Automatic annotation (TrEMBL):
Localisation per UniProt entry: Mitochondrion membrane
Organism: Alligator mississippiensis (American alligator)
Xref: NCBIfam families: mtc
Keyword Manganese included in the entry's annotation: no
InterPro entries linked to this entry: Mtc
Superkingdom of the organism of origin: Eukaryota
UniProt GO cellular component terms: mitochondrial inner membrane
Gene symbol of the encoding locus: SFXN5
Name this polypeptide is given: Sidoreflexin
Entry keyword Cytoplasm: no
Recorded topology in the membrane: Multi-pass membrane protein
Main subcellular localisation: mitochondrion
UniProt keyword terms in alphabetical order: Amino-acid transport, Membrane, Mitochondrion, Transmembrane, Transmembrane helix, Transport
């Protein structure tokens, strides 16, 4: 019975866990960021791909279990880009986001940073994010390269400017003691990264404010394209992009400020960096899926609040829209979304085309 609940009847291209509950989304994201898929061999990958092809064509060998099918889909989705069918470079896979991103987080949170080191770690973080975004982009309708470059440059400039500016202000604040100054400096990466995230969202999605985004009725039918819904989606996404990095960039400084006062680290200062690395890894690995599981992908809005032509086009009192770059780990390799609204069971691929294969980078 336990295996039946963990491995329900297989559905090609759909999430293994129920997406209408926080627990289901949390387990789903844990599955997606599982770093064990980084060590899958080429032969094992080919077996997984072939097993899914057999399922698709109704030629499965006898005795194949749901567990094996879900495992095969997990492997393929972690390694193969669904649009190009090419292998994604390991550091830029979603399963590699935490192991390859943790050293950057450690670097961002290093104490007593110089101007050069601050610029370097902020640049490296935004560069890693840009590579992850590009490697997992929607290749069915390619976006202009200039759009990625625009978002990248905006994120780098805003992150570096905020980080450097705050560090200079803290260093010049004479009323702070050295210990207080050091503690405040540890929290500088968060506002820098948060501002970069907002800048990136605005630059990458500003055209939606002019063109609008699709809104759907209770039956999953597209009612129209709403600029008002696009404004709400952009604001919600910007807000969540500020909230989501918080556990990863705020918790480690708090924890380390406590641990560094213990006799163990006071007598062994060389252990501070390894301990900080472990703290960052734990915060990154646990807090990220917890944070992104909090927010359902679909938002609901009253029809009366939208444009008159949309309100007149449907009898539904509310419609739903996809927020976009928020909880997108569950959309990276799926063309169907299970929404948080029980009345909506189907979302067409065209309604999520603008967020397919996008990450939620720090």
């Amino acid at each position: 019975m336990a295996e039946l609940s963990d491995y329900p009847p297989f559905q090609l291209g759909k999430p293994r866990f129920e997406q209408t509950s926080f627990y289901g989304r949390f387990r789903h994201f844990l599955d997606i960021i599982d770093p064990r898929t980084l060590f899958v061999s080429e032969s094992r990958l080919k077996e997984a791909v072939q097993l899914l092809e057999d399922y698709k064509h109704g030629t499965l060998p006898p005795g194949v279990t749901n567990k094996e099918l879900w495992g095969a889909q997990k492997i393929k989705q972690a390694i193969i880009h669904p649009d190009t069918n090419e292998t994604i470079f390991m550091p830029f896979r979603m399963s590699g986001y935490i192991p390859f991103g943790t050293p950057i987080v450690v670097g961002l949170l290093l104490p007593n940073q110089t101007l050069a080191s601050t610029v370097f770690w902020q640049w490296l973080n935004q560069s890693h994010n840009a590579c992850v975004n590009y490697a997992n982009r929607n290749a069915t309708k390619p976006s202009p390269t200039s759009k990625f470059i625009q978002g990248y440059l905006g994120a780098v400039i805003s992150a570096v400017s905020i980080a450097v500016g705050l560090n200079v202000l803290v260093q010049r604040a004479n009323k702070f003691t050295p210990a207080t100054r050091l503690l405040i400096q540890r929290f500088v990466p968060f506002p820098a990264v948060a501002s970069a995230n907002i800048c990136n969202v605005v630059l990458m999605r500003h055209t939606e404010l002019e063109e609008g985004i699709d809104v759907l009725d209770n039956n999953g039918n597209i009612v129209g394209s709403s600029r008002i819904a696009a404004k709400h989606a952009l604001l919600e996404t910007a807000l969540t992009r500020v909230v989501l990095p918080m556990p990863i960039l705020v918790l480690p400084p708090i924890i380390m400020s406590i641990l560094e006062k213990t006799s163990l680290l006071r007598s062994r200062p060389r252990m501070i960096l390894p301990v900080q690395s472990l703290v960052c890894l734990a915060a990154f690995g646990l807090a990220l899926p917890l944070a992104i599981s909090l927010f359902p992908q679909m938002s609901e809005i009253e029809t009366s609040r939208l444009e008159p032509e949309i309100a007149m086009a449907t009898t539904s009192k509310t419609v739903v829209y996809n927020k976009g770059l928020t909880n997108v780990f569950d959309l990276l390799h799926a063309h169907v979304i299970e929404t948080s609204c029980s009345a909506v069971r189907r979302v067409t691929y065209s309604s999520i085309k603008f967020i397919h294969h996008e990450y939620l980078p720090l």
